[in-house]
């Protein structure tokens, strides 16, 4: 990771993803409040719409990136020993990547069902 | 009036301790610095820095009842008893209330706090329009007392890498100066995860600045300028 990615760019990505999350989460929750999804089939139909699918995928990407930058910031601040820092960052990174892969698998599989 | 003052003499004490003092007479309008001088008359081993006595030199910065400030412009009337006086947090103590400001100055020097010109020196002064001069208001007044930087949690965790609010205020002071010609070099030097971007806008710096300056806003201006220059 180059120094410029970890400074200004990280800061910008954190803000851009924050805006997306701030818009997406209330909209998604509001939608589910007004059009409750009660069983599996309507879920599949909802998620198979390319708009929903893409925006949800973007949401997953945004929350992972946002989380990564935030946790990395906390680690840089509070975890000073180099080996502990690297270990923790690798763990967090792997965990986030796994979450992303899992979410992608769910979303793409839904598409496959319909 | 009762005082509890941090005492530590590395030559004699194994660890720091708090010493209680009492001052019988408090004239109205007395500042903490005057009280410390009176206490030093009681116990001449009490050590602290001070000079101008009117909030200009920035020598007597200390932690007063949990808040960084200048003793010479802190009225005793505003302080709760016992007045707890400690050295600045997050920096090495040399003795009692005297701290080692080397790290602070090192960060200040690293932002090159002087005008850098690439053009040949002009015959007369480099002129500035009134509005260009106005941009320096709220920046040049910094007296480098260190109240802001030593109250910043980001500086406590990474004092050797994060520049701290005082140095960053000065970084913006020269970026904002129409006569300076090293904008790109200055911005490049500030990028990376540590030097500028450890600031999480806690704003302790704004809260404690005895001159009423706003380093957080200056840091925001630097980020904006960086962003503008990068796209």
From TrEMBL, chain B:
Reactions the enzyme catalyzes: a quinone + succinate = fumarate + a quinol
Superkingdom of the source species: Bacteria
Keyword field: 2Fe-2S, 3Fe-4S, 4Fe-4S, Electron transport, Iron, Iron-sulfur, Metal-binding, Oxidoreductase, Transport, Tricarboxylic acid cycle
Alphabetical list of Pfam families matching this protein: Fer2_3, Fer4_17
Bilayer-spanning residue ranges: none
Pathway entry: Carbohydrate metabolism; tricarboxylic acid cycle; fumarate from succinate (bacterial route): step 1/1
Family membership noted in the UniProt record: Belongs to the succinate dehydrogenase/fumarate reductase iron-sulfur protein family.
Database matches in NCBIfam families: dhsB, PRK05950.1
The name this protein goes by in its record: Succinate dehydrogenase iron-sulfur subunit
Source species of the chain: endosymbiont of Escarpia spicata
Gene giving rise to this polypeptide: sdhB
